[in-house]
């Protein structure tokens, strides 16, 4: 019997479900949805619980991923895979590597499920690439009326559009088909740079590199810039160096610095200066998913805004003012990434080349004045919040920034007329 209590990764969202279910097939999911609907209840599929919002939270029936390791199918010639929707990304990456395939882009970590990642618009960085949902070529969906639909650009195209980035509001994904590329090696180049130099060259760096991102350490003028480009041959870090950078410095030492910051907030500027100097330059080359994804053991809360690329300078200047004036010590670096415009209805990069600005705070430290201040800055430049990260926007304000918002709601009305998949978060962002 599963524990009805649930908490997300950051521990900032907790709840107790009325029931917990683990159906293995689409038919079993459909039967369960039918029963929940007939009883007037609600149901929520949960992934790996890595959203900072209450997207996966329910006091109705919690549907946990089951049968997530298989079966899966690989069509190597077409570079397509079809996997259970609850498969974690780290397993997906193994399946793909075994077939000499890879996803074109990934985010920072690989713990999320495929369904959870695509449903909230999870993305990595790269000016010529979209987020994970842009790789979805087809899907199987159990709707709120208990129907099982196979959707693709040619079968139920509107349902496909809504469900490939649907914030868990239009149905339960049971299988996802992904368009892949041939496996590739990435060369990582990571080095400190002064903030003014980063801000004045970020557009050139985005154009010249396959993937670029930077971390700015608040109260300092220092950044860590990461550039990843395709390479011919692997040249991995020695194990001791990988351990030193990714485990000891980025997790163990950083965790000590964060705990110190929580206990003695006045030390934060000095601690950030220390962190900014601790990570030195390094280059290495490895299998793409090993370069994209790193372990994240220090727990934090996060808000991330997608802004038009051309507005990044203004957005960043406003963010710096908030850091200086919000009265909250900011112990975590600010992360900036880029993505290409896409056409997914609810994609944060819909219709515009995008820069992502992510703010974090160590768990247990105050964050609200900081995040709310940054949200106000981002709203002024028509920013869109990540669906899986904290924000305070409601349906009316989101409608104004998503041209296809009402098309999405119309499909939701058809697929889930009784709001079987509703929760507090869907009411906040989509209304009743
Ligand atoms: C340490 C950390 C690092 C992160 N890095 C990144 C990053 O680099 N880039 C980025 O964009 N985001 C990042 N995120 C955010 C994360 O990718 C998203 O919040 C993602 O949704 C989490 O996936 P999950 O499997 O945990 O889904 P959950 O958080 O469990 O669920 C998310 C949503 O998906 C829905 N869902 C889950 N399963 C199904 C299903 N089968 N059918 C339909 N809907 C479903 C849920 O109902 C919910 O609405 C990070 C989060 C953390 C904690």
TrEMBL record:
GO MF annotations in UniProt: D-arabinono-1,4-lactone oxidase activity; FAD binding; L-gulono-1,4-lactone dehydrogenase activity
All copies of domain FAD-binding PCMH-type, residue ranges: 13-183
Pfam families associated with the record: ALO, FAD_binding_4
Record key words, sorted: Oxidoreductase
One Gene Ontology cellular component annotation held by this UniProt entry: membrane
Keyword Magnesium: no
Flavoprotein found in the keyword field: no
Protein known as: L-gulonolactone oxidase
């Amino acid at each position: 019997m599963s524990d009805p209590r649930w908490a997300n990764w950051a521990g900032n969202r907790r709840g107790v479900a009325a029931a917990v279910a683990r159906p293995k097939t689409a038919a079993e999911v459909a039967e369960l949805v039918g029963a929940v609907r007939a009883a007037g209840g609600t149901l929520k599929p949960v992934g790996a619980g890595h959203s900072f919002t209450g997207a996966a939270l329910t006091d109705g029936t919690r549907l946990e991923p089951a049968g997530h390791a298989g079966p899966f199918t690989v069509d190597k010639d077409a570079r397509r895979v079809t996997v259970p929707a609850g498969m974690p990304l780290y397993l997906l990456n193994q399946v793909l590597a075994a077939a000499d395939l890879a996803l074109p882009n990934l985010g920072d970590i690989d713990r999320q499920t495929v369904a959870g990642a695509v449903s909230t618009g999870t993305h990595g960085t790269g000016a010529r690439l979209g987020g994970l949902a842009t790789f979805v070529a087809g899907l199987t969906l159990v709707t709120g009326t208990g129907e099982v639909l196979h959707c693709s650009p040619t079968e139920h195209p509107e349902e496909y559009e809504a469900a490939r980035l649907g914030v868990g509001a239009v149905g339960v994904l049971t299988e996802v088909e992904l368009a892949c590329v041939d496996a590739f090696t990435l060369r990582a180049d990571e080095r400190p740079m002064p903030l003014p130099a980063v801000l004045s060259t970020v557009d050139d760096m985005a154009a010249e590199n396959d993937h670029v991102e930077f971390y700015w350490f608040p109260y300092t003028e220092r950044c860590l810039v990461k550039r990843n480009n395709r390479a011919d041959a692997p040249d991995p870090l020695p194990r001791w160096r990988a351990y030193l950078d990714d485990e000891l410095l980025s997790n163990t030492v950083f965790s000590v610095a964060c705990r110190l910051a929580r206990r003695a907030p006045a030390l934060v500027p000095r601690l950030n200066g220390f962190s900014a100097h601790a990570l030195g330059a390094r280059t290495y080359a490895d299998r793409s998913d090993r370069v994209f994804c790193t372990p994240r053991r220090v727990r934090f809360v996060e808000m991330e805004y997608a802004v038009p690329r051309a507005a990044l300078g203004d957005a960043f200047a406003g963010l710096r003012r908030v850091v200086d004036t919000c009265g909250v010590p900011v112990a975590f670096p600010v992360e900036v990434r880029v993505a290409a415009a896409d056409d997914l209805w609810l994609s944060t990069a819909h219709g515009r080349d995008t820069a992502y600005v992510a703010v974090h705070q160590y768990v247990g430290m105050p964050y609200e004045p900081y995040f709310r201040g940054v949200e106000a800055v981002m709203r002024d430049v028509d920013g869109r919040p990540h669906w899986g990260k904290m924000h305070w926007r409601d349906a009316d304000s989101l409608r104004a920034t998503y041209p296809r918002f009402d098309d999405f709601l119309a499909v939701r009305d058809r697929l889930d007329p009784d709001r079987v998949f509703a929760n507090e978060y869907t009411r906040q962002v989509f209304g009743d």
